[in-house]
């Protein structure tokens, strides 16, 4: 949402001691906001919903750690030996149950879930007068809860199920919960699909829509059909939902003619946008991703970069020089910000390959963490490629299976694929490769390798084992909750 976020907090509890008499130990609450007394008006419900959206922007969520966890283990990206040890562990497949990022991601996603559950629990305290508003707020809340659970279960597989019905269960178990969690995810996205607007406008741009819900439902079905759940009957569901979203004119989705326009600040809600984490400069709601991926001491962006997420040379070389995505995906050449007469080029004056995708030099905030570019959780090309994958797994390399991938390749200026040249297995690899070129740096690759069972065959640089297809339950959580059980491959 490119609107000023609502902020609300707990009012301090004032205690008063009245001397030595019977009420000495009584707590006198003069002002206290709790879920029980907060939910009174429609505006309260809207503010509570904003608090759920705000959790996505946390550094332990989509501002930083979730993207890194999905990118570093892939073959496109590495950490350039930067920062915390967890980044190197992820890049080199040496992580342990105590690696810091797992606890950060797990705990923050449950913050999203718990806030969503609170909204869903207390909305009935409000008498809604605006027609359809209650259903819309429920739809957005359930979309966000479904999103958090989708990331949790794909990362960790065995996770506690927490809903508005069991919020009091502090020490929930993660044994035997997988099917119930998947059912909740499907139900949440289905409800959102049926109760949200096809698209939003004005101040509501950036909120979840029916199109976003249907796209994420297709992604959930796709994930459930693939490894490790292998529910093959869900390939058809994924294909159906994806094609329905592609063809729905009310959503208005389409590929941008120019790949570069997808990542321009001025076009962040263009035809390819489906759902993003929203950022805004000069309002304490910015993002540091351009700094994180920008070139350190490179005179590339106004406030300098950190070179903390960079490009594997082999991946850089894998993209054809004729690919129209290349100049936006990678830093090839630029004029200095402070020295505009100097031209920097790779590999002449730039030591290692860097990403250019989330660099828009018109995007200038008031600090290194105050950029306004949004992070795409999903966009139209992701949807097209999901449709191709589902169709291929369902029926093999048919024209239907090639529809989505060939639209993406046509925009990139690459030759179209022919069904007769492929088997199901080789087309699966081609779809993965196309997703890597198209969606690198956007937080998809680890999930793609997991779902397609490609991690141990694609990663050649480091030793990859079967356990790397799932993350361990964080040791901190195991220590705090005796009802949690570690994933079997990490015992």
UniProtKB/TrEMBL annotation:
Chief location category: membrane
Location in or out of the cell: Cell outer membrane
Signal sequence extent: none
Keywords, in A-Z order: Cell outer membrane, Membrane, Signal
A single GO cellular-component term on record: cell outer membrane
Source taxon at top rank: Bacteria
UniProt domain RagB/SusD: residue ranges: 351-490
Coiled coil, from the record: none
SusD-like N-terminal domain sequence ranges: 24-222
Pfam families: SusD-like_3, SusD_RagB
Similarity field: Belongs to the SusD family.
The name this protein goes by in its record: SusD family
Organism of this sequence: Proteiniphilum saccharofermentans
């Amino acid at each position: 949402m490119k609107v000023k976020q609502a902020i609300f907090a707990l009012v301090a509890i004032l205690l008063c001691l009245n001397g030595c008499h019977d009420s000495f130990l009584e707590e006198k609450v003069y002002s206290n906001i709790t879920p029980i007394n907060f939910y009174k008006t429609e505006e309260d419900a809207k503010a509570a919903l904003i608090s759920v959206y705000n959790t996505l922007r946390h550094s332990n969520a989509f501002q930083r750690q979730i993207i890194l966890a999905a990118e570093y283990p892939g073959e496109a990206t590495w950490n350039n030996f930067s920062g915390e040890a967890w980044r190197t562990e992820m890049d080199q497949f040496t992580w342990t149950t105590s690696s810091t990022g797992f606890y950060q991601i797990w705990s923050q996603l449950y913050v999203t879930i718990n806030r969503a559950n609170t909204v869903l629990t207390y909305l009935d305290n409000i008498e809604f007068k605006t027609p359809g508003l209650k259903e819309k707020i429920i739809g957005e809340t359930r979309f966000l809860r479904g999103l958090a659970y989708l990331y949790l279960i794909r990362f960790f597989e065995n996770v506690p199920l927490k809903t508005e019905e069991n919020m009091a269960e502090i020490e929930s178990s993660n044994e035997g919960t997988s099917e119930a969690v998947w059912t909740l995810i499907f139900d949440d996205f289905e409800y959102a699909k049926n109760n949200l607007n096809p698209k939003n406008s004005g101040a509501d741009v950036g909120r979840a829509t029916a199109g976003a819900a249907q796209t994420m439902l297709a992604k959930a079905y796709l994930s459930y059909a693939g490894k490790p759940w292998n529910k093959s009957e869900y390939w058809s569901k994924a294909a159906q939902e994806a094609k329905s979203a592609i063809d729905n004119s009310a959503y208005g989705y389409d590929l941008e003619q120019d790949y570069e326009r997808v990542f321009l600040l001025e076009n962040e809600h263009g035809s390819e946008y489906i759902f993003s984490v929203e950022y805004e400069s000069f309002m304490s709601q910015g993002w540091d991703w351009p700094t994180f991926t920008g070139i350190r001491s490179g005179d590339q962006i106004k406030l300098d970069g950190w070179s903390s997420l960079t490009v594997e040379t082999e991946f850089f070389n894998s993209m054809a020089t004729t690919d129209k995505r290349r100049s936006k995906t990678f830093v090839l050449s630029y004029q200095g910000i402070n020295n505009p007469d100097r031209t920097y080029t790779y590999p002449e004056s730039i030591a290692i390959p860097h990403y250019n995708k989330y660099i828009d030099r018109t995007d200038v905030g008031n600090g290194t963490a105050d950029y306004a570019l949004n992070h795409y959780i999903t966009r139209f090309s992701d949807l097209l490629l999901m449709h191709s994958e589902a169709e291929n797994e369902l029926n093999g390399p048919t024209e239907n299976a090639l529809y989505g991938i060939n639209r993406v390749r046509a925009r990139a200026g690459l030759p179209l694929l022919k069904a007769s040249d492929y088997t199901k297995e080789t087309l699966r690899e081609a779809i993965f490769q196309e997703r890597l070129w198209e969606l690198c740096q956007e937080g998809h690759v680890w999930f793609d390798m997991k779902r397609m069972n490609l991690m141990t065959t694609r990663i050649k640089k480091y030793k990859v084992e079967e356990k790397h297809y799932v993350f361990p339950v964080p040791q901190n959580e195991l220590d705090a909750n005796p009802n949690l059980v570690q994933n079997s491959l990490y015992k």
